[in-house]
Structure formats: structure tokens, C-alpha cells
Amino acid sequence: MQQVRKNTFIEPGLFTLTWPIFIESFLYILMGSTDTFMLSYVSDEAVAAVGVANQLVFFAILVFQFVATGTTVLVSQNLGAGLLKEARKVSGISVSLNLFFGIVVSFLVVLFRGQFLGLFELTPEIHKLAEQYLLIVGATLFSQALLVTVSSILRANGFTKEAMFTSVFMNMIHLVGNSLFIYGLFGVPQLGIQGVALSTALSRIIAVALIFWFMYKRLPVRIKRGDYTSFNLSYIKRILRIGIPSASENIVYNTSQMAMTAIIALIGAMALTTRVYTWNIMSFMMLFGMSLGQGTQILIGYKVGAGDFEGAYERLLKSLRLSLMLTILSVIPIVLVRESLLSIFTANQEIIKEGAKLLLLCLILEPGRTFNMVIISALRAAGDVNFPVKMAVLSMWIISVPLGYFLGITLGFGLTGIWIAFIFDEWFRGIVMYFRWKSRVWEKKSFVDHSVQPA
After folding, report:
1. How far apart are alpha carbons 179 and 331 in whole angstroms?
2. How does pLDDT run across 119-145, given as a tens digit for each residue?
3. Domain residues for 207?
4. Is residue 12 part of a domain?
5. Interval 81-111: pLDDT, tens
6. Is residue 197, in this structure, part of any structural domain at all?
7. Alpha-helical regions (H) of 308-414
8. Is residue 140 included in any domain, yes or no?
């Protein structure tokens, strides 16, 4: 039987880890929906512009996930093994590494924003609005790089509440900023889409200062100044060996979503707006799978680091059952009131009718997505990072995107055809990932160096 290592780190429970992640994710999605609702006051074109621009922003943020995901897994595995000083050193290097990536990405997004947006076949008006948004938000993306890195460090140490409080504070600033710049409250100029961008940028910069304060207040082993500048290649290689494949899976997903958005743009501007409104509502359906997946990832990292493979195996199966049940329970009431929810965003009956059909399909789509989010997070935490990427390329780019074009454009099913392609992708990958976990191949892929003595 595998010997379980004893260590000085006290492992938190799933609920303790997950509920702050759930609240943080809920607020993040709520603010995205609030952005959409407030922008609908400006125009449907503004909604579409921010929806498309944010796909590029989210894609840029995925570059930061190279380091953030690697940090979460490596820190949690080292904590599970009792290697507290190793966890501290990894944390310091990851902050500096992602700051470098953040500055580079900010520069590229601002410089090439027009060319990036040109990939989407947008109308001239939507293209112009999206450029205005990206100029401001793109210039401050480096702050998001710091935010996701420090957040991943806090979460890996079990301090998920602190990451949540930072998100709450950031969203409050963002909401106030939106209200001022969109509605012109208290005599503030109405800046429309540029105002939303300024509000987003300012709230992120303030959040960075707050989350650094939390990190230095809460971490049991404080990061030293030298940890930020000691670029140990061994640590960097391990961070990127986990992070690049892990984030690559998300990049494959997001580039396929961008391709699908380009296909939707071929249907028309109304279809693009329908996609934005529908996706805002769908985001709430993903909450349980998303938060339980992240909480489970941290716990499995602890268990794999400690050598408790049986505990990790059972933990995933329990989390998967729970997340599937909660996802189904959250989807049903949303589907029942789907037309009323869509009418919050728009009075256009064609958009409401089409969006209602798409939300109905989520009864099939979302349980499959939950399979992916929870199991892939677990495989990642165990160190099995390459297999999900290979399956993502096969399922999304070789099958799902061509299928979406064939059903949506060639056969004329429109958005319904594209949603059917989404369903195929999520369920195909979910089932394959389940059997991958059952095979227990991941037990041989831990990244912890057990030759180092626990601190």
C-alpha cells in the first residue's frame, strides 16, 4: 500500500475551499451580465462589441494561466508533501514570471488590436467600438496577470476567502464605475463603451493592491524579496511543464470558441448578439461545476503530493457526483424561466425566441461540460496535463468546429446547429476523461521532488 507522507500542512475540506470560489465565480459572472445589461442601455452593437473584445481579453488571460495553473498545482503538491519552503519559492518566482508575461501581452493586444478583431468579420460599427474597448482594457492586462497569480497562490494555500473578498471589492468598484460612466450620474460624462473599459481597468489595478496585502497577511511562510528575483530554472521548468499544457487546453477551447463566434457572425449581427445574451445566462449554469472543479483540484494536489493516491481517486468520484447533481438542479429552473431572463437584456422578440431554444439545449449541454471541468481539473492537479490537450484538439478543432459550420451554415440550422456541435464536444470529451481517471495512469505523474526534506 502507498505510504502517505505526514506533513505540517493542515488540509482544508472541500466545502471550506469551494464556497468562496463559488461566490467569487458567481460575482464575476454577475458583473459580466451587469456589464451586458448596462451596455444594452447604449446599444446592441455595444453589447456585441464588448462580447467579442472580451473573447480576446479572455484569450490573453489564458496566457497568464500558464503560470497561475502551474503555480496552483505545484504549490498544493508541495504543501501536501510538507515542503513549505519549496512552495514559498515557487510562489515568488511565479509572480515575477507572470508580470513579465503580462507586460508583453498588454503591449501586443494594444498594438495589434485591429488585426485581432479583423478575424471576426465584424461590421464597421462593432469593430470600431471593440477597438475603443481593447485600447484601455488591453493596456492594463498586466494587472490581471498579477491578480490571477496571487489568487492562485492564496487558493493553493487554502485561503480561498481572501481571493473572494478581493473579487467582491473589485466588482463593487466596477459596478460604481459603470454606473457613473454609462448613465452619467453626479454629472460625470457619459462615456459609453470607453467608460466600461475605464471602470474595468481601474477596478483590476485596485484589486491587485488588495490581494498582495492579503498574501502578506495570510501566508504561513512569507515570500521573501529574493524569491521574486531568484529565477531558478528548475522551478520555472516545473511551473511551465504543468502550466503550458494545462493552459493550452483552455487556449484550444477559447480559440475554438472564437472560430464558432466567427461562424455565428456569418449568420448575422443579431445571431452574434443572441450568443452574447445567451452565454451570459449559461454562465450561471456552469457555476457549480466550475467551483467544485477548482476546489477538487486543490484537494487532489494535496493528496497526490502526500502520496495518498487512493484518497485522490475517491475524492474525484465524490466531487463529480455532487457537481453533476448540483448542475442539473441549477439548469432546470433557469430553463423554466429562460424567456423572462432573456427579456432582462433585450426587448427584441427574435433574439428572445432564438435564445430560448439555445437555453433549452443546455439541459443536455451543461452536464457534459461539468464532466470536463471537474475531471480535467483533477487530472491537472495529479500532473496528467498532456492528455486533456490532445483530446481538446481532436474534439474541438477536428470535430466540433467543422461540425458547427456544417450544421449551422451548410445545413442552415443556424445557432441551434452550433449548439449541437457544443453538446457533442462536451459529452465526447467528458466520457473520455472519465475513463482516463478510472485508468489511474495519473498516479505516475506527480511533480513533487520527494528528495527534498519537508520543512
Report:
1. 30
2. 877 888 888 989 999 999 999 999 999
3. 17-441
4. no
5. 788 888 888 899 999 999 999 999 999 999 9
6. yes
7. 309-336, 338-345, 349-382, 386-392, 401-405
8. yes
Candidates 193, 146, 203; CA nearest to 27 is 203
Q: What is the largest CA-CA distance in the chain?
A: 70
Cα–Cα–Cα angle for 339, 200, 25, rounded to 5 degrees: 55
Q: Report yes or no on 451 lying in a domain.
A: no
**What's the burial of 336, exposed, middle or buried (CB within 10 Å: 0-12/13-18/19+)?**
exposed
Of 69, 76, 81, 95, the closest CA to residue 223 belongs to: 95
What is the mean pLDDT of the segment spanning 220-247? Answer: 83
User: By the 8 A CB rule, do 97 and 237 touch?
Assistant: no
| pLDDT tens readout for residues 275-312 | 988 998 998 898 888 889 989 988 998 888 888 899 99
**How many independent structural domains does the chain possess?**
1
Look up the pTM and report it.
Answer: 0.78
Helix (H) or strand (E) segment spanning residue 181:
helix 160-183
Angle value at C-alpha 12, between 7 and 14, nearest 5 degrees: 135
Count how many residues are written for the chain: 455
